[in-house]
Design goal:
It is built from 6 helices and 12 strands. The chain binds cytidine-5'-monophosphate. The site of cytidine-5'-monophosphate has 12 residues, from strand 7, helix 2, strand 10 and strand 12.
Length: 255
């Protein structure tokens, strides 16, 4: 029997195991949903499989345009090999249109275009409900310094341009999204790279024509169906269904 792997971390949607070589981890995508109330079915069959593929698709796309990230290769339907990073305890959020918290805070109508992409930060803490924090907090508490923050904003905006374009090409508006950033060390030299995952779990995605939601807000509204339907639709449009291999599938262009 294969030796049991050492579990490093378990979150709501993912598990991290020790990887085969030092400096690597295995990231396992669960079906569990953070969005479905506990009294309803709490897991969406197939969501983990789709998010494993979708995160791979986006991370490889980022690699292709020179945006450093943690993805190394897919291991199986639910697992991918990633670089181990020292995660910065921030959710880095980029917003293109008003929705969610910014709409509430500023009384903006959902869908209002923002004057420019806005980057904001939340402190990663489930107990505190990921409170929004300012750059002043981040520097004062030593989570990142000013140079890191400049690099984080530059990374976040490159990811935004890339994702916005990819989604727009298949008729989807990228309203906002969240990424996480990690540090990797090469001797004394430190670099910041995109980590965690990029999937419909961390994005607001609306159909360009109909405004239909194709993200976890849709999950929240629909509850758990037999399949992760909005996520399947996103994967289908991008040509990334699990039956396709890697980037081999053809995206469905929507005119
Ligand atoms: O809720 P809020 O409007 O702040 O969310 C902004 C974006 O960040 C949304 O796309 C949401 O899916 C993502 N997010 C996330 N995980 C969190 C908080 C926000 O993926 N804990």
């Amino acid at each position: 029997m294969a030796p049991r792997r050492k579990k490093i971390y378990e979150g709501k949607a993912k598990i991290l195991y020790e990887g085969p070589e030092p400096g690597t981890l295995i990231q396992y995508f669960k079906d569990d949903s953070t969005e479905i109330p506990a009294h309803r079915k709490a897991s969406i069959e197939g969501k983990g499989v789709l998010n494993n593929r979708l995160s791979e698709f986006f991370m490889q796309g980022l690699t292709n345009i020179g945006v450093p990230n943690h993805f190394i290769r897919r291991v199986n339907m639910r697992e991918q090999l990633i670089r181990q990073v020292e995660i910065i305890p921030l959710e880095v959020i980029v917003r293109n249109f008003a929705a969610g918290n910014i709409a509430k805070r500023l009384g903006l109508e959902e869908g209002t275009p923002l004057p420019r992409p806005i980057v904001e930060y939340s402190y990663k803490s489930d107990d505190l409900g990921d409170p929004m924090v300012s750059e002043e907090y981040i520097v004062a508490f030593g989570w990142a310094n000013q140079q890191d923050l400049d690099d984080i904003v530059a990374l976040a905006l490159r990811v935004n341009d890339f994702l916005s374009g990819v989604f727009y090409g298949v008729g989807i508006k990228l309203v906002d999204f969240k990424i996480e950033i990690g540090r990797i060390w090469d001797g004394d030299f430190m670099r910041l790279i995109v980590a965690d995952e990029i999937s419909p779990d961390c994005c607001r995605l609306w159909d360009v024509k109909t405004g239909e939601k194709l993200d976890r807000d849709a999950m929240r509204q629909q509850g758990a169906g037999p399949m992760a339907d909005p996520y399947t639709e996103v994967a289908r449009r991008l040509g990334v269904l699990p039956t396709n291999v890697g980037h081999g599938g053809k995206p469905t262009l929507i005119n």
